[in-house]
TrEMBL record:
Protein name (Swiss-Prot/TrEMBL): Cysteine desulfurase
Domain Aminotransferase class V: 8-327
Function: Catalyzes the removal of elemental sulfur atoms from cysteine to produce alanine. Seems to participate in the biosynthesis of the nitrogenase metalloclusters by providing the inorganic sulfur required for the Fe-S core formation.
Cofactor: pyridoxal 5'-phosphate
Highest taxon, organism lineage: Bacteria
Keywords: Iron, Iron-sulfur, Metal-binding, Pyridoxal phosphate, Transferase
Length: 379
């Protein structure tokens, strides 16, 4: 790598770097491998590791350990919630227009009728629409994420839950992006189920959790052994769970410093707006470390490549779409289809510094000016 070029990672919403506490817990667990279902001493030690992780993950969202089922990640947690709701007799699904593909695609393949809950220009779910839609007969599953992965916009989940409860529905909340970035109180939100993923908060990839409240029954999708109290078969990912727990605890302890990212993010936004960029979701509450912007005429892919050449790692829209940059459907849902091909996501996290945000701004502005100059030459 070029010594004079920075290497700045501002793509935490894709994956956060592993926290040191998580790395330590991961390596420690890997050093004494055992199956937590084994009755001997090593097995019992592995069981303790899993249960400690469960308590730490539960504490992050204010639930007892018994409410947490470990799975392979956010995608599986969302699928387990949707299929559990189906097994509990829901007859239709309402999903917000900005849900992650993990929710959208699972809902679509569930065999149940799916309706899409619109969002306003700031990317906030339309609760008036939800109230009306819930008037229709039939037990309903509502999927409303806590914070959007592209814009960081925080959804009015507590208000939605009051509506869903009044109609005896099931509210599933994808909190994969919110967890570890803002404080979460599962019962205060009134959710029935909630999806979490370790790698978005500084744990390893490939481990997540479904949190279920007392009204929700988790119905297994994977059959086999009786692990996770019969809710999810398969030998537990002991080291992953240990690291997830350690990351959850560190994230909880670091919430105040995470909140500080907002001032650096907003300072960057001001600089870019002054040169013509548009900040998406700016009028709504947002995660403190996410900035979604669009520079008209400056394609998302070109932005990402220019930033990468300058040593700054950021994303165009959702990173989960196999390295392919598509126009952001989240931005389209916000009524800004005109800006969707130009959206860029900058997301910091636990190890990001003010200097990272400043250098990111320098690089973006330099590229924006080059593009502008080229367009003027052509014109
Ligand atoms: N939900 C949201 C909001 C996400 O951003 C992601 C990942 O980008 C997922 C779910 C999927 O999580 P995982 O990568 O752990 O399967």
């Amino acid at each position: 790598m070029n010594a004079s070029r920075p290497s700045i990672y501002l793509d935490y919403n894709a994956t956060a770097p592993l926290r040191p506490q998580a790395k330590e817990a991961l390596l420690r667990a890997l050093e004494s491998p055992a199956n937590p279902s084994s009755v001997h001493a090593a097995g019992r030690a592995a069981r303790d590791v899993v249960e400690r992780g469960r308590a730490q993950v539960g504490a992050l969202v204010g639930v007892p350990a018994g409410s947490v089922t470990f799975v392979s990640g956010g995608t599986e947690a969302n699928a387990l919630a949707i299929e559990s709701a189906k097994a509990a007799g829901v007859e239709r699904i309402l999903i917000s227009a900005i849900e992650h593909d993990a929710v959208t695609e699972t809902a679509k393949t569930s065999g149940l009728p799916v309706e899409v809950l619109p969002v306003d220009n700031n990317g906030v779910a339309d609760l008036g629409w939800l109230a009306q839609a819930l008037e229709k007969p039939g037990k309903t599953l509502v999927c409303l994420m806590l914070a959007n992965n592209e814009t960081g916009v925080i959804q009015p989940v507590d208000k939605a839950s009051a509506l869903v409860r009044a109609h005896d529905g099931w509210l599933h909340v994808d909190a994969v992006q919110a967890a570890g970035k803002i404080a979460i109180d599962f019962s205060g939100l009134g959710a029935d189920t909630m999806a979490l993923s370790a790698h978005k908060l500084g744990g390893p990839q490939g481990v997540g959790a479904l949190v279920a409240g007392t009204r929700a029954t988790v119905t297994r999708r994977l059959h086999g052994g009786g692990q996770e109290r019969g809710r999810r078969a398969g030998t537990e990912n002991v080291a992953g769970i240990a690291a997830f727990g350690a990351a959850a605890q560190a994230a909880q302890e670091g919430l105040a410093s995470m909140a500080e990212q907002a001032q650096w993010r907003d300072a960057l936004a001001q600089r870019l707006k002054a040169e013509g960029a548009v900040v998406l979701g700016e009028g709504a509450d947002r995660l403190p470390q996410t900035l979604c912007l669009a520079g008209e005429g400056f394609g998302s892919e070109v932005q990402v490549m220019n930033m990468d050449l300058a040593g700054i790692m950021v994303s165009a829209g959702s990173a989960c779409s196999s390295g392919k940059v598509k126009a952001s459907r989240v931005v389209e849902a916000m009524g800004r289809a005109d800006l969707a091909p130009f959206a860029l996501r900058i997301s910091g996290g636990w190890a990001s510094t003010e200097d990272d945000w400043i250098k990111c701004g320098d690089a973006w502005l330099a590229a924006w000016k080059r593009i502008g100059a080229r367009r003027r030459e052509v014109a």
